[in-house]
Specification:
Chain B: It is found in: Cell membrane. Chain B: This is Sugar ABC transporter permease. Chain B: GO terms for molecular function: transmembrane transporter activity. The complex is a heterotrimer of chains A (about 350), B (about 375) and C (about 300). In chain A, the strands form two sheets. A six-stranded parallel β-sheet of chain A has the order 2-1-3-4-5-11, with helices on both faces. Chain A has a six-stranded mixed β-sheet with strand order 7-6-8-9-10-12, sandwiched between helices. In chain A, strand 8 (about 210-215), helix 8 and strand 9 (about 230-235) form a beta-alpha-beta unit. The model of chain A is unreliable at about 1-25 (pLDDT under 50). Chain A contains eleven helices and twelve strands. Chain A has two domains: about 25-130, 3-Layer(aba) Sandwich (Rossmann fold); about 130-250 and about 285-340, Response regulator (Rossmann fold). In chain A, about 40% of the residues lie in helices and about 20% in strands. With about 300 residues, chain C is an all-alpha fold. Chain C has helices at about 5-30, 40-55, 60-85, 90-105, 130-135, 140-160, 160-170, 175-180, 185-210, 220-230, 235-260, 265-285. Classes of the chains: A alpha/beta (about 350), B mainly alpha (about 375), C mainly alpha (about 300). Chains in contact: A-B, A-C, B-C.
């Protein structure tokens, strides 16, 4: 086995001499993706962000990505491979890459790292994430108005704080419109299984939900809602194509502006480690057009969006009563502080269910 | 006239030596065509896959790290397969081993427990994996339930158990509820061999397992029994060998090795327990076992070689923007060629004029 | 629409890809060949099925493309295991790796596209019958096809000479060969049938379930189909029951969650797999002398002269 490898080596070395010459002055930017770039959801949006950044800087940058990198033992190697290949700025786009990113960062102090949705930083590691709950608040308001049965169907992936805070933000907002609103939650234990997401949507509709919300990545639920004549909210990306008469709006992850800003800082030599937790105001989240709703509801949604952008509307405004009837401590005075939202592990009053594993 | 396959009187040692070379040659030829279709320079691409990872110590270390669990699991599986016991649930045993060993790491976290923690974790991992492997084995010998199916089903169950534990009881209290345990303490971590690299003690343990496997198979009565039961079950029965006992034994061995691989991976390269600790090691190891012809030395080479294609595939994504799917196709084709060429060790082609009359099956 | 009716409709749809793939694998295994590559053939079927339907606008063309893709992949497997006597477990796993790659390569350019799914049957009068109407007369063609296929397979296996020979080949290839039957050719056809069914099962997902293609969308259904075949102890009647039972557990656990029963979701998700193990043990235990697996299942056959 070795012999033929070595025999072929000479020819290859000769061939690769001409290969390595190009792209000397360009800033190399690397990306680690959890799914395939074509997952239509989480990774797809990150890749759109990469492409937007590439378009902005053109010849000045060169990007490389590794897709389908599992969050297990392979991720540290994948990140290090990008660092070794000369990438000076590396985005690792899933929570599970947190420890590997930090480990590699310690070995490569001159490379800058950006870890999405994590909470541990270092002098060359920044973190960034979206305030997804802001979009959930708007969806909750719309759902409160639009639901005739008073039952929302929620397809949830995994009981992590990001998902739980989304459910709570939705319900807190919906309760301001309809105090008796109910939510039915199905945990599918996957980010991504179109068939199962479709089954969950069907089950929720069959149990009386007339508005489907999801915290999973594929447009399957949207399409089921459309087929059954119900309404739904998209997730991660624009899903209107899969439910032209069903989609009310969608929380779209918009990483482009952030990637552009960070690459710009890197090019100008002003990059420094920070924590960017951005929402509608910074356009890290963008709401898809408000459709399939009466004008007054649309107006309400737009006003809420504007108020959130201006900082006048706080989705986790106190007082907030937890499921057990106790009032939640208000660490930021008028509202819950970021730590409480980032670590949220309780349901608010009015949710008639239990958090799995609690 | 037709071309038929027939069994050789004895295995061909010549083919045994050259068949991997033929297989790699065929793979290179096929992939060159595919690369050309994709508009990539085949010579450069093949260089990135096969040569670049061998060119520096970092990549060599990474190959060893990647091969460690594959080889360790595959050695255990080879025992099963030689004895005609079809354990395809090593993935589940890997996960349960990781869970069992991690239990101790979680319990001793933050205490001043001594150096005994890591050895105890490895032991627990091996026991956990062995016990989990014994479930399908017992179902098989006691009830006659197909071990292929039960061991496979238990993979999903193990996956969900791990998921439940790290999202519930074992979750890091300081981890914002994210689904991982706390980082293991230094005494619960597999030591690194070379400063600054990732090569860890698990690689050495794996080498010991390879040697032990070779001795056990080649030099002991148990090894002899395993080979006889697998090759000639009827003869083994007349010889008084208890095939049920061997099923239990080989399942326990392969479960223990898979479980140990699991805890080494968690306490080594990962450093904490979390969902998704295995990118399918248990299944890939099945292929490694067969590529290595169920022979310890062969498995070591096969494991390293498969690891090379993983590392090479990653470097191809970086250097040449070759999509990951191409690497999968590449691995699939390579596996088929190697398996097909290996077949010629035991069989040969012959041109015959008429259809055969007398025959027997080769089980 | 009542809740029970809705649940039955959902179960029928969720079970159909499982039943399709398992039917093919049942026939394959009855001929003595264990093809663990069902998942790989399914995912390629999904990619090619979607590609065919998107390019031509016809679900039927898509279904045919999916089947053909499954057949092509199964021929690779047949070449390896039958012509070259490669171990079937290893070849099946390699087939899944290859299939995942091929499907990604083919499918990547269709990501984000949408097609019109297979229409549901509508017979005025019949489909409108309360409760039973939609269940019996309101499905898409795949649902009826899957039932027709398993009935056809059952008829073939037990009522025809060809089926008798196929089972004989699976139970004792040496005797079948001695009697002059072309063992390898029969097995090749069985493997191809398995490939066609798996390809069709994969194509069902983008053609009828969700109108788009995403890499990896089969999400382990091929492995469940393999489990079903053993669960059924290689009997077509039990296979139908098993497929619908598995679909039912999947759907009911979602409903139980929606109803807020508060059982850990991981436990609910694990339930079908645990159920399979338990049922398998019970079935095997009820019978003396081991399981009813085709005696030559998974073994290599090389005619000896």
């Amino acid at each position: 086995m070795r012999k033929i490898l070595l025999a072929a080596a000479a020819a290859v070395v000769a061939a690769s001499v001409s290969f390595g010459a190009s792209a000397a002055d360009k800033l190399k930017v690397g990306f680690i993706y959890l799914g395939p770039v074509g997952d239509l959801g989480w990774t797809y949006q990150h890749d759109l962000g990469r492409l937007a950044m590439l378009k902005e800087f053109g010849d000045k940058v060169e990007t490389t990505y590794l897709e389908n990198v599992s969050e297990g033992p392979d991720s540290e190697r994948s990140i290090e491979q990008l660092a070794r290949a000369g990438n000076k700025l590396i985005f690792t786009t899933s929570f599970g890459y947190m420890e590997p990113t930090l480990k590699v960062a310690r070995k490569y102090p001159n490379v800058h790292f950006e870890h999405a949705t994590g909470y541990k930083r270092d002098k060359n590691v920044s973190t960034y994430s979206g305030r997804f709950y802001e979009g959930r608040h708007i969806q909750g308001l719309i759902a409160g108005k639009m639901s005739k049965t008073g039952v929302l169907g929620y397809i949830a992936s995994f009981p992590i704080p990001e998902v739980i805070s989304g459910i709570n933000a939705t319900m807190l907002a919906a309760q301001t419109i309809n105090p008796n609103i109910k939510v039915k939650i199905i945990w599918v234990n996957t980010w991504f299984d179109p068939g199962k997401e479709a089954d969950a949507a069907k089950a929720l509709i069959d149990q009386g939900a007339d508005i489907i919300m999801q915290h999973t990545d594929s447009p399957a639920a949207m399409q089921v809602a459309a087929e059954r004549g119900k309404l739904a909210f998209g997730q991660d990306s624009e899903m209107i194509k899969f439910g032209p008469k069903a989609q009310l709006t969608s929380i779209m992850n918009n990483w482009g502006p952030y990637y552009i800003a960070r690459v710009k800082a890197e090019l100008e030599g002003t990059w420094k480690s920070e924590d960017q937790w951005a929402g509608l105001k910074e356009k890290m989240l963008v709401m898809a057009p408000y459709l399939n709703m009466p004008d007054d509801v649309k107006k309400m949604a737009e006003e809420a969006e504007a108020a959130i952008k201006e900082g006048k509307l706080l989705p986790f405004k106190c007082p907030i009563t937890a499921q057990d009837g106790k009032e939640v401590e208000c660490k930021a005075g008028t509202h819950l502080d970021d730590g409480q939202v980032l670590g949220m592990n309780f349901y608010v009053k009015g949710i008639d269910d239990k958090i799995p594993g609690k | 006239m037709q071309l038929v396959l027939e069994k050789r009187a004895e295995r061909s040692n010549t083919i045994a030596l050259v068949s991997p070379l033929i297989a790699i040659g065929l793979t290179i030829a096929t992939m060159s065509v595919l690369f050309a279709i994709l508009g990539k320079n085949p010579i450069v691409a093949l260089g990135v896959y096969f040569i670049d990872p061998l060119a520096d110590s970092y990549s060599l270390q990474e190959i060893a790290v990647k091969a460690t669990p594959l080889v360790m699991i595959a050695i255990g599986l080879s025992f099963c397969y030689l004895a005609n016991a079809w354990n395809i649930g090593a993935e589940g045993q890997f996960l349960i081993g990781a869970v069992a060993g991690s239990w101790l790491a979680v319990k001793t976290h933050g205490t001043d427990a001594g150096l005994w923690v890591l050895p105890a974790m490895l032991l627990l991992g091996a026991i956990g994996g062995a016990l989990y492997a014994l479930i399908p084995a017992i179902c098989k010998v006691r009830f006659g339930a197909s071990e292929i199916l039960t061991s496979l089903m238990l993979v999903y169950v193990a996956d969900l158990l791990l998921d439940y534990l790290v999202r519930g009881p074992w979750r890091d209290p300081k981890g914002f509820n994210f689904p991982t345990t706390a980082e293991f303490d230094p005494v619960a971590t597999v030591p690194i061999l070379i400063e600054g690299g990732r090569l860890h003690l698990g690689a050495v343990i794996t080498l010991l397992v390879v040697v032990a496997g070779a001795v056990l198979l080649g030099k002991t009565i148990m090894g002899f029994e395993i080979r006889v039961v697998g090759a000639a079950p009827r003869a083994a029965r007349f010889g008084g060998f208890n095939s049920n006992r061997l099923i239990l034994l080989t399942f326990a061995i392969s479960g223990a090795l898979a479980g140990m691989a699991g805890i080494i991976e968690v306490a080594g390269p990962i450093g904490h327990l979390q969902p998704g600790i295995s990118p399918g090691y248990g299944f890939t190891a099945i292929i490694v076992a067969f590529l290595g012809r169920l022979n310890p030395a062969g498995i070591l080479i096969a494991g390293l070689f498969l690891a090379l294609t993983f590392i090479g595939g990653e470097q191809a994504q970086i250097a040449m923007k070759i999509p990951l799917d191409v690497t999968k196709v590449f691995q699939g084709i390579l596996l088929f060629y190697v398996l097909a060429c290996d077949s010629l060790i035991l069989y040969r082609f012959r041109l015959v004029s008429s259809s055969p009359k007398v025959s027997r099956g080769v089980a | 629409m009542g809740l029970l009716e809705a649940i039955i409709l959902a179960v029928l749809a969720a079970s159909t890809p499982l039943l399709l793939a398992a039917t093919g694998e049942l026939v394959t295994e009855r001929a003595g060949v264990l093809n663990l590559g069902v998942e790989g053939m399914m995912i390629v079927g999904a990619a090619c099925g979607f590609a065919g339907a998107w390019l031509t606008g016809s679900v039927i063309v898509g279904a045919i493309c999916g089947m053909l893709a499954g057949v092509v992949l199964s021929l690779v497997f047949a070449l390896m295991t039958l012509a070259l006597a490669v171990n079937q477990v290893a070849a099946g796993l390699a087939l899944t790796i290859l299939g995942t790659g091929v499907s990604g390569l083919i499918g990547s350019r269709f990501v984000g596209e949408k097609i019109t799914t297979a229409p549901k049957l509508y017979i005025p009068g019949l489909t409108d019958i309360p409760f039973a109407g939609r269940i019996l007369f309101g499905q898409d063609a795949f649902v009826y096809l899957s039932l027709a296929l398993i009935i056809g397979a059952s008829w073939f296996l037990y009522r025809t000479r060809g089926g008798l020979i196929l089972r004989a080949v699976g139970d004792n290839h040496a005797s079948a060969h001695a009697l002059g039957y072309p063992v390898l050719r029969i097995r090749m056809f069985a493997v191809m049938f398995g490939g066609a069914c798996a390809g069709l099962a994969g194509a069902y997902l983008p053609l009828a379930y969700t109108p788009f293609f995403i890499p990896g969308m089969t999400a382990g259904r091929g492995w469940i189909a393999l489990a079903l075949v053993v669960f059924s102890s290689w009997l077509p009647g039990r296979l139908v029951i098993g497929a619908y039972l598995f679909g039912a557990v999947t759907i009911l656990q979602l409903h139980a969650q929606g109803a807020g029963l508060g059982i850990p979701s991981q436990f609910m998700t694990a339930l079908p797999y645990l159920a399979t193990v338990i049922v398998l043990v019970l079935i095997s235990r009820a019978r003396t002398g081991g399981s009813t697996a085709p005696a030559a299942l998974g073994t290599v056959f090389v005619p000896d002269r």
